[in-house]
Every structure is written in structure tokens, then in C-alpha cells.
Design a protein that fits this description.
Layout: H1 3-16, E1 23-26, H2 35-46, E2 54-58, E3 64-68, H3 71-80, E4 85-87, H4 89-101, E5 105-109, E6 116-118, H5 129-137, E7 142-144, H6 146-150
Parallel strand pairs: 6-7
Antiparallel strand pairs: 1-3, 1-4, 2-3, 2-5
Helix pairs in contact: 2-3, 2-5
């Protein structure tokens, strides 16, 4: 392939690409189909090896998330049954302006927290509402009880 043909092909790819970066808005209002798993999706984005940075939009549509628009994130959302909407740079700017004017806040999320649930080792998963919610949302967690606390784990 000659340089001119390659240049034309590259120019075509550049011109066909979206103008602004897009994000996925994961609403937490009535438009969301599975609120608990939406939290799980945000957590999944933050977990290693992905470590995708996200935003939590407090008080915007009941605490929605802005996640990176990536094929694996869209697939994970589909797997979890979580609703999302693509927003471009201009729409994201409008959301940010509204957040600045109203009683809202943007929280930058960069790492997944380590989560432990204090529960007896013989408890069934349905015995604890917190454990049940974390399991359903597919959020990684550790079960701890007295022995783990006393030994410093």
C-alpha cells in the first residue's frame, strides 16, 4: 500500500471517529432497572486489573455514576441488567454545570474500597442484609468475625 492510500485511509478513520469523548451515565433514579447491581458495576470498574476512574454524581438523578464508555463496561452492564445512557462531552458539560448550580457534588472515584462484613462464620448468606446486598450486587467482600479481628487480619 502506498503512502497516499494509507494517508487517505487514516484520515477517513479519524473523520469517522466521534468528536468528543463519551461516558456512560448510569442513572440511579426510576430509570434504573437494577439499583444494587448498578453499584456493583461501578465497583467492578474500580477493581484491579481495570482500575477505571469513575465519578459519583451525588444528588444528580439520585446519585448517578459516570463511567468510562468502554466495550467491556457496556458488556458488564448488560450482564448485570444495569441501565445506562451514553453522554458526549457537551452533555457531560451540561451535567457538570447543573451540579455546580444546584445542591449536588461530583465525587472522583479512583480505587475500589476493601469491604469486610462482620458476620459469624456459620451464618447463612440470607442471615445478613448487608451480605445479601453485596453478594447480589457482585461486590467483592470479605467475611470477618472475632478471630480475624483479634489476629489483626
Amino acid at each position: 500500500m502506498n503512502c497516499r492510500a494509507l494517508s487517505i485511509m487514516i484520515l477517513g478513520l479519524v473523520l469517522s471517529a466521534p468528536v468528543g469523548a463519551t461516558s456512560l451515565l448510569v442513572p440511579m433514579d426510576a430509570a434504573q432497572t437494577d439499583h444494587l447491581r448498578a453499584y456493583g458495576l461501578a465497583y467492578w470498574c474500580l477493581e484491579e486489573p481495570r482500575s477505571y476512574e469513575c465519578e459519583w454524581l451525588l444528588n444528580y438523578r439520585c446519585g448517578s455514576f459516570l463511567l468510562p464508555d468502554r466495550p467491556d463496561v457496556r458488556q458488564r452492564a448488560a450482564d448485570l441488567g444495569v441501565s445506562w445512557k451514553r453522554v458526549d462531552e457537551a452533555q457531560r458539560g451540561q451535567i457538570y454545570q447543573l451540579i455546580e448550580r444546584e445542591n449536588m457534588q461530583r465525587i472522583h472515584l479512583a480505587t475500589a474500597p476493601r469491604i469486610a462484613v462482620y458476620i459469624p462464620p456459620d451464618a447463612e448468606p440470607w442471615d445478613d442484609a448487608c451480605l445479601l446486598a453485596l453478594t447480589y450486587a457482585e461486590i467483592s467482600h470479605t467475611r470477618i468475625w472475632d478471630r480475624e479481628l483479634l489476629t489483626g487480619k
